[in-house]
């Protein structure tokens, strides 16, 4: 094992019926005024919001709500939330939803604690987060892992720029993980979540760092679990076993455990962010679109790593590393297809793009060719452009 520092302060409350513990967790945090953030109408229609607000009221905790969070969470709504949370005097931000809601809540928490700074300055790297309000989570979508991660993503809807921010202040105080809250998810959303969970793991697994046997084993076991349970979840979203395994995999995939001691890559994420920012496509779909093309472009860098991935995750038996690596990539692409997920631009629904658009995305991803993407095979603008070309079919 290589050296690492690992600290996860988030208290996880997992299992059936744990939603009922939300007010108790807020009370334990000492909060009196909760700013509750949610997405569309499903949280209302299901009665979840009403139940949470009623429980908070019984504990004498004031609550203000902000709905309307969209996929690829918008900077504008987060800014609005900051102002409302400050005016309300919020002392805890409660996210009820999936990754986009949680990331918006994190942004609001940072902005409310640092009222003199525009939150986008944090995401652009011009200001460092030095304080934040506590964030609690009631998870309703297994995908992003934001409920236990130090990451958050925002999209500036004016410029179409999507950026991620990593800071210890992004770690939620507590996370309620009740798998039954995911029972009503649409099939496409479940499929996108499966891809996101896998990609958070694979973007750590494909690393130039060697000698992390246990960390590799964690990642491989998580991927096998997702591959085994994903199809069952798509077949029946009320299959508690399948949905509960996906929920826990989602949290573990992005809390740092599957990449301990290693340099992370996340180049496919960066390439996918440009697709999401430009075309407003689902995050998971953007990742499945680019991954196979990224993998084939990077294969020469370390065929043995892809071969290990194939043997340990997909059960590939081919003894030759090159052949095993190629099979591993194809198995992954085929699995994405089996979920109904896209693996090229046409399947994504954006169509074949002109060279100018591909260049603009590559240029934006690499910040004018001043920033290398990833660590497994660092990508400059020209390399990023070549991967977009491969996916542009």
TrEMBL record:
<protein>
    <submittedName>
        <fullName>Iron-containing alcohol dehydrogenase</fullName>
        <ecNumber>1.1.1.-</ecNumber>
    </submittedName>
</protein>
<dbReference type="GO" id="GO:0016491">
    <property type="term" value="F:oxidoreductase activity"/>
</dbReference>
<feature type="domain" description="Alcohol dehydrogenase iron-type/glycerol dehydrogenase GldA">
    <location>
        <begin position="9"/>
        <end position="179"/>
    </location>
</feature>
<dbReference type="InterPro" id="IPR044731">
    <property type="entry name" value="BDH-like"/>
</dbReference>
<dbReference type="Pfam" id="PF00465">
    <property type="entry name" value="Fe-ADH"/>
</dbReference>
<dbReference type="InterPro" id="IPR056798">
    <property type="entry name" value="ADH_Fe_C"/>
</dbReference>
<dbReference type="InterPro" id="IPR001670">
    <property type="entry name" value="ADH_Fe/GldA"/>
</dbReference>
<feature type="domain" description="Fe-containing alcohol dehydrogenase-like C-terminal">
    <location>
        <begin position="191"/>
        <end position="389"/>
    </location>
</feature>
<keyword id="KW-0560">Oxidoreductase</keyword>
<dbReference type="Pfam" id="PF25137">
    <property type="entry name" value="ADH_Fe_C"/>
</dbReference>
């Amino acid at each position: 094992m290589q050296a690492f520092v690992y600290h996860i302060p988030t208290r996880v409350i997992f299992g059936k019926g744990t939603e009922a513990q939300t007010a108790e967790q807020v009370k334990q945090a000492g909060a009196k005024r909760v700013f509750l953030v949610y997405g569309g109408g499903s949280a209302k229609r299901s009665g979840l919001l009403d139940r949470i607000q009623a429980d908070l009221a019984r504990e004498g905790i004031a609550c203000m709500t902000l709905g309307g969070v969209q996929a690829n969470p918008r900077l504008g709504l987060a800014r609005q939330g900051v102002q409302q949370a400050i005016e309300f005097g919020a002392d805890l931000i409660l996210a009820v939803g999936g990754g986009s809601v949680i990331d918006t809540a994190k942004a609001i928490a940072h902005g409310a604690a640092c009222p003199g700074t525009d939150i986008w300055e944090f995401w652009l790297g011009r200001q460092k987060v030095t304080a934040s309000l506590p964030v609690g989570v009631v998870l309703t979508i297994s995908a992003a892992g934001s409920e236990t991660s130090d990451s958050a993503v925002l999209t500036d809807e004016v410029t179409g720029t999507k950026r991620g921010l990593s800071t210890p202040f992004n770690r939620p105080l507590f996370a309620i993980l009740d798998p039954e809250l995911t029972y009503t998810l649409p099939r496409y959303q479940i499929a996108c979540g499966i891809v996101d969970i896998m990609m958070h793991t694979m973007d750590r697994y494909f690393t130039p760092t060697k000698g992390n046997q246990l960390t590799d084993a964690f990642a491989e076991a998580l991927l096998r679990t997702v591959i085994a349970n994903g199809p069952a979840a798509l077949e029946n979203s009320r299959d508690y076993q399948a949905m509960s395994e996906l929920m826990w995999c989602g949290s573990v995939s992005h809390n740092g455990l599957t990449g301990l001691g290693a340099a992370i890559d996340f180049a496919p994420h960066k390439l996918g962010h440009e697709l999401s920012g430009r075309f407003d496509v689902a995050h998971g779909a953007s990742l499945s679109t680019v991954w196979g093309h990224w993998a084939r472009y990077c294969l020469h860098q370390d065929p043995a790593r892809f071969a290990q991935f194939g043997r340990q995750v997909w059960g590939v038996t081919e003894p030759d590393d090159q052949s095993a690596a190629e099979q591993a990539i194809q198995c992954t692409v085929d699995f994405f297809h089996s979920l109904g997920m896209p693996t090229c631009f046409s399947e994504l629904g954006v169509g074949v793009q002109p060279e100018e658009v591909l260049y603009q995305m590559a240029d934006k991803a690499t910040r004018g060719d001043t920033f290398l993407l990833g660590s497994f095979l660092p990508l400059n603008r020209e390399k990023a452009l070549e991967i977009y070309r491969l996916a542009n079919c």
